[in-house]
Amino acid sequence: MTLQRRSFLKLASLAAAGNAAAMNSFGGLSAMAQSSSGSDYKALVCILLQGGNDGNNMLIPADTAGYTAYAAARQGLALSRSSLLELNGNTNLAVHASMPEVQQLFQKNKAAFLLNTGSLVAPLTRAEYLAGNSAAGSSLFSHYDQTNFLQAEHALSSDSTGWGGRIADVMQSTYGTAQLPTVVSVSGSHIFGNGKLTQGYTVAPGTAGALVGTCWEGTYCAERLRAAQQLLTMSSGATLVQTDGEMTTGIYQYASNLSAAVNSVAPLVTSLPTGNPLTSQLQQIMQIMQVRSNLGARRQIFFATLNGFDTHSDQLGQQATMLDDLSAALGGFYESLEDMGLGSQVTTFTVSDFGRSLRGNSQAGSDHAWGNHQIVVGDAVKGGKTYGSFPDLTLGGPDDSGNSGRWIPTTSTTQYAATLASWFGVSATDLPTVFPLSGQFAQDNLGFMGSAAAAAPQLRRLRLRPVAERRGEPAQPSRGEQEPSSGAASKTADETRMHAGPLQE
User: Fold this and answer.
1) Which H helix or E strand runs over 95?
2) Is residue 284 included in any domain, yes or no?
3) Is 250 domain-assigned?
4) Is 374 a member of any domain?
5) N or C: which end of the chain has fewer CB within 10 A?
6) Shortest CA distance to 52 belongs to which of 186, 157, 142?
7) Cα–Cα nearest to 280, from 256, 304, 298
């Protein structure tokens, strides 16, 4: 049987250039070896809210003075106070009406908020910023640069490694030789998983159990695969080509390992919502977690993305939809992890390019800003609390980098990431290797993570909303859900939502 010319060219290209969809850059493939699983297993799940989520309308002051200041500055972008979902714990804060699952997680002490976090090279005041202090870093308000900074957490813009990959580097000696790299992206290639000694791996959602590669050549497919494998075993004598051939061989092996593991177990049933752009990514992450023992995985880091937060226009409707998707996905993911017995071993957290200006623009939207609020979820989280300082909402005030409500961060994303890394098992000795900027701040550990042993006992399950309800249809009490007390019933519906206390367990 003779190969078509275009098939041969595809094979040669594959062997010479590697599989860019599965591996993000040149480098060694000494990914994590992980000999066993069980109670020592831990995972971090990073969700990038791409475009710059408007934290000002995700987490809002609930007290009279705070809300008045917020509404005066936000004007046309201000949310109705009666629509907000108040958080307990004397926070004087509320979340957007589209986030009831996040509210429930917070009330159950399973979620926390990190306040006014952002990219910093060192602590910074308004006066220092206006004087041109370099602690602000460079290229503020740029999607590309700020997204790279939060993934790299490194002052050098030329550094091509990410903090996920550097964690994999320093933990390599403890967790052995790999059947699958420690860092896995389910949303394409990102520098987050690049290490100096290790590289991240990319899995397209829904493909973990598929055979390696895709072929449309009919009867030529089997010969195409054999030819590719032969090309990859050839010694070229050229270091770059030989290294890339080894990379591609590694990709085939990783895909084979994952496919075999996934196909050896029953299909996974989850509580993830349908009709949600984040669901397929989280489903894929859970499928890989399900076969962690088969892969020998004791430490895993995942990277997912929810797009659509660059709300320069028509923000109110667009962000409501995005936060609805985020909240429903976080709630369903948490419940599914509980069902798998992994609630205390998996911590999910959000990051975003930057925040958005408190003052709106002429297009009913907001513009690129700086400091932002983030969410952390899991049984190991010391939840029901906020960490850091909520900004003074005065335009041109002490926390404003100018006069439009672009907050100067009071907590660095380096501190945020270092706290997660410490829980994950990175030693104090290795922390400066993973986060070169860590020594610039008063504390590396912000204290929002506990231990698995300290996790609270299982409480009543979250009320997960069906798709129809999430898209605006009237809410219906779920079976077994408690009706409001006579005292609550005497209030208006808006008052009940605004002043809801802790859930009755």
Assistant:
1) strand 93-95
2) yes
3) no
4) yes
5) N
6) 142
7) 304
Q: β-strand 111-118 against 372-377: which pairing, if any?
A: antiparallel
Q: How many CB atoms lie within 10 A of CB 481?
A: 10
CA–CA distance, 355 with 84 (Å, rounded to integer) = 20
- Nearest 5°: phi and psi at 301? -130, 130
Question: Rounded CA gap, 362 and 40, in Å?
Answer: 52
pTM score: 0.82
Handedness of CA 270, 276, 281, 284 (dihedral sign): positive
Per-residue pLDDT tens digits for 39-69: 789 999 999 999 999 999 999 999 999 999 9
Say if strands 372-377 and 346-352 run parallel, antiparallel, or are unpaired: antiparallel
Q: In the chain, what's the furthest Cα-to-Cα distance?
A: 81
Q: Is residue 39 part of a domain?
A: yes
User: 469: which 2 tokens?
Assistant: 């309800």
| CB distance 208 to 283 below 8 Å | no
- Total number of domains in the chain: 1
DSSP 364: S
User: By C-alpha distance, which of 112, 99, 62 is closest to 462?
Assistant: 99
Structure tokens that stand for 292 in this block? 């962690």
Residue 91's nearest CA partner among 66, 58, 62 is 62
Residues 82-128 pLDDT 10s? 999 999 877 899 999 999 999 999 999 999 999 999 999 999 999 99
For residue 500, give both structure tokens: 């809801």
